[in-house]
Amino acid sequence: MPDRRTARRAAVALALVALAAGPAPAAAQPGTEHGLVALSLTPQEVRRPIGDVQFYTAQGRFADGTIRNVTQRVEYRSSDPKVAVARNEKGRKSAVELVGVGRATISAVDPLTGVTSTDGKGDASVNVVGRLERLSIAPARATKSVGETMHFTVTGHYPGGATRNLTQQAHYMSSDPSVALMPNRKGEKSLLQALAPGTATITARDATSGATTAVGATITIVGKLERLTLAPPRPRRAPGQVQNYTATGHYGGGATRNLTQQVEYASSDPAVARAPNAEGSRSRIEAVAPGIATITARHPESGIATGADGAARLIVYDPVTKKAPGEDALRKRAAAPEVPPAPAAPAVVCGDAGGDGALGLSDPFWIALGATGLTACAPAACDVNADGAVTLGDAVTVFLVVAGYAQPLNCP
Known about the structure:
The chain has helices at residues 2-21, 327-335, 362-371, 379-382, 392-402, and strands at 36-42, 45-49, 53-55, 57-62, 67-69, 75-78, 84-86, 95-98, 102-109, 124-129, 134-138, 141-145, 149-151, 153-157, 163-165, 170-174, 180-181, 191-194, 198-206, 217-222, 225-231, 236-237, 242-244, 246-251, 256-258, 264-267, 273-274, 284-287, 291-298, 312-316. The chain is mainly beta.
């Protein structure tokens, strides 16, 4: 009996607990379990070549309004496995392999809730085009100096006009590696090294398809940069106006190159003219106040700068007087004719009494006349025995030398 009373009491207690807890909760509705209510895939529209792999990102919207990345939580499906295959491999579930030409819709489903991207119009579409047809390389032409480097961009062209950047997938070749070398280094496959003056054609090839560039890039390598010049040499501007210069690089072998946007500019007087060196408009010089400022340029890679003959002067004039301080003096110096340097005095040849620069049969005669006092004969040319006087013996010595008998000539 005690056992029956105990069981009865336990049943009453359980009934009281059930009444206190209230009615049992209703079953969770689809889509609200775990809080996920909608899915969407990105990118929603892509055009890719056959053989590629397209990765998607799945974004989930939850009941509390938050958006979370659920890329590795959901499972992916393709509307046409002959075009695109979703293998749902662990760690790379969003990878879709493009196996055939055509279109396919890619959708995602959450296995925990059954929510799909199709429910909220969040599916993605992929257009798979044919195999690579050809490559193009840019720039098509370029000029570099010895010691410089540059990079190319290679674009793959597919049926229907689709393109893709294949710069790091292509293999590069130079028609003359002694002029322009393509090392094909990993991570910078398109790097070119300029080694020696000359011209080389650079081509690219896709190892997978065998497609190549129909037209290569022509690269001209010139000698090292020797000097810089700026033009115009003496422009005039009012305060508030600007002046743009052209910087020309002069290279070994006579080649020239426009370096306007590759050099750095400086002003001798920033109170008169400023050189901001703004990216894309480096040569833009701002006129500030009346005066004359010397504008110079420097090539940062080589350190070559404009010399006295390559620098320019910016004349900033007063808007009222239309003149700049020191402008008249500058104009006079520019207009003054250059005075040619005096010719160098000819070198004195020992024994050359005639002064024609070489020994001849007339020289002993002139030395003899000098020895007898009939004409002047400088010791530097006539005292060939270096005894302190011009004598007939000097004339005899020079005669023997002219006749082919080796004799020492020791002028003072």
